[in-house]
Amino acid sequence: xxxxxxxxxxxxxxxxxxxxxxxxxxxxxxxxxxxxxxxxxxxxxxxxxxxxxxxxxxxxxxxxxxxxxxxxxxxxxxxxxxxxxxxxxxxxxxxxxxxxxxxxxxxxxxxxxxxxxxxxxxxxxxxxxxxxxxxxxxxxxxxxxxxxxxxxxxxxxxxxxxxxxxxxxxxxxxxxxxxxxxxxxxxxxxxxxxxxxxxxxxxxxxxxxxxxxxxxxxxxxxxxxxxxxxxxxxxxx
Length: 237
Fold this sequence. Notes:
Layout (H helix, E strand, L loop, with lengths): L13 H14 L2 H10 L11 H12 L3 H7 L5 H10 L6 H11 L6 H8 L11 H8 L4 H14 L6 H7 L7 H17 L1 H10 L4 H13 L5 H8 L4
Helix pairs in contact: 3-5, 5-7, 7-9, 8-9, 9-11, 11-12, 11-13, 13-14
């Protein structure tokens, strides 16, 4: 059972940060911890706190001087990294956000940190960060690349960006979690821009893995017609 929630309304210093860490340690759930350890491949120790709870905690911290909180972060736990990433969504100035964002993304070492945090940056939809995403995709770091593709997936599948997105999806990668992100992105592109995406799949300019995984995801989608599911099935390697 989760212990009584502490009030996060204090000024950040070494003592209050340590008290906060003790609080996180006290609310970890063993079943959540065991489940997360099975599906995640992170170097950070996992406490077992569910994401909705972490979002609530991050929201509470956002009401404090949370940039001071950043100064004390030691990345002791997976959950602390997630909280930091979610907190970035509360930075209102784009330039300031990007300053923290570019430092933070090098802490990402698992698909769940990437996807949970990127999904928090709804303002990217109304502010054009697509060039940032494009540049991240050209990075050689597995999870930096994934961040770029997941930004496009969440916020930029539209007529303005579709041609560039499809071109970037032909980029070869040796990383499993990058290729999974590309396949997921292409499935959503197929749903929103069927003709252009289908033409790319027909061209077979994708890697074998991405081609086949994209088709599998399309065939699993409830947003795709039975006819299209049969059509793309024939395009597998």
